[in-house]
Design a protein that fits this description.
Shape: elongated
Structural class: mainly alpha
Helix content: 55-70%
Number of strands: 0
Strand content: under 5%
Order of helices and strands: HHHHH
Distance between the termini: 63 Å
Radius of gyration: 27 Å
Length: 83
Amino acid sequence: MELGLGHLGMTPDAFWRLTMPEFNAKLQGFKEFHGVKDKEEAPTVEDIQGMLAAFPDGPLPKERRLRFKREKRDKDIDPKWIG
């Protein structure tokens, strides 16, 4: 009802007279007109394993690890306790 009366702007009378195939056709036309795409399926375990193999995470370079530790340390320090 929310789609028909709200998003599609149908009157209650027109909404209740529609058959399901008519409603689906109207909804599909609305989605195509407004560029709404259907949700994609979630990646499978094989998809994720393939991505991990194609783009492996290596260890961070030492400088990046040290910078990360400094940034975390500096963020955790409460400025009111300094000085």
